[in-house]
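Components:
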Amino acid sequence: MRNRVTRRQFLDHSGKVAALAAGVSLAARTRRAPAADAADKFTIALIGCGGMGRYKLNNFMETGQCRVAAVCDVDPANAEMAVKQVVDKLGAAPEVVKDYRKVIDRKDIDLVIIATPDHWHAAPMMLACQAGKDVYCEKPCCHNILEGRAMKEAAARYKRIVQVGTHQRSMPHIQAAREFVQAGKLGVVSMTNTYTYGNNAPDGLGHEPDGDPPAGADYDMWLGPAPKRPFNRRRWHSSWRWYFDYGCGMVGDWNVHLQDIIMWTMGVTAPVAVSASGGHLVLTDDRDTPDVMQAVYEFPAAAQAPKGFVQTYTMRKTSGKPWSAGGYGMDFHGTNGMLHMTRGDWKLEADRVDWEKPDSPFRTEGFERRADGADGAAHLDHVKDFLASVVSRKPPIASIDQHYHTVVACHLANVSLKVGRKIFWDADKVMCFTDRELRTPDAQANALLGREYRKGYELPAV
Ligand SMILES: NC(=O)c1ccc[n+]([C@@H]2O[C@H](COP(=O)([O-])OP(=O)(O)OC[C@H]3O[C@@H](n4cnc5c(N)ncnc54)[C@H](O)[C@@H]3O)[C@@H](O)[C@H]2O)c1
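Structure:
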């Protein structure tokens, strides 16, 4: 924990702040005081009990600071697996609900974990903020840019702590590599690259006819804001991310982690231009997100890039072998050399620097720092960072404010891909333009910044 404010002090304070911000009566916002024998425990709930939700639930329980009051899923089979985890670890069974609004309504719940598919983050997150709860929301925080802005505003309005699940920020070796770049040791950085490769050819998700949803599952609620369509397993648990109705393809799913470290390290908040090429070129499945993509970003001047820099994202689901390094990574190219990062290491290659000098950071060509096991440790540390912020009321390491910058950059690549041209971005106006001078709004691109919400599942007005 970052300081020694007691749980009771924090609840008293944050309850008042949220109440004032929301303009509602204090009584309506005052939560039950924690029981004396559990004064340092957080009462939490999980919304979305799939693969990641259950993984995160374990992290929260592992901290020893949380009691689990409820788990929520539209599919009882996944909810039951979460219940078993809780019973195995903590002994007491949580309440099981299908409708997340029942979680929001429970006054005793302090924190919610949101690990639904991307199209179902915004509404629960915003309503949880309004109800005075802090939120750990999985990445990418939003299905589209306007949703992300509304979520960021809800967190600010109700003064809630919102951590997004870009846990790479909690990896010590990535923090060290970031410091290396920020200290100017790479020289002037002109280009950064992120990449994710895999080979799912020829069939990708495969082929399966439409059918019936699993018994007991509330498929209509699962669809939520997305268009109504017959049930198909390829669009259901886990593989929904390859359809724009629910997810945002690889650039928002995986690259959001990588893009986040590039922008955090370089200290930039928005690209000035984005151009993406690609499509569904090889796999025979019916995904509508690309299986091949190249996005090129232009970023403005930054501390280590006085005249700006170029960032590329390269994605293939059709050919998994890179010439060097692994199947994903982040590279920074500077006048002194190159820095390569993954979740397991970072390494340097000197370029025109006197790396023989004893004090040179490039002294050993191919300098490498291993960080095996960093991924699992960082998931837990990311949760601990969130809980510390909940107490201190200081922003967490991956606050929604910061994540918003990254997720916008990811979504813009999809916008450019869909309109088939380079777009210029005005982050203040949250608008795309067709020209660098930002004179002519790009109506077609701007129409893609939000989505159409199915009736009854509109974004809540909070
Ligand atoms: N941080 C990471 O490294 C990481 C890794 C994987 C996934 N994720 C993110 O976690 C989230 C979940 O991904 P996943 O792979 O676990 O997906 P998943 O499909 O396995 O799980 C999602 C769960 O949410 C449930 N759900 C859907 N709509 C709901 C609703 N309205 N109310 C309650 N439950 C609902 C589904 O039934 C399912 O059980 C996504 O946003 C994903 O991007 C993050």
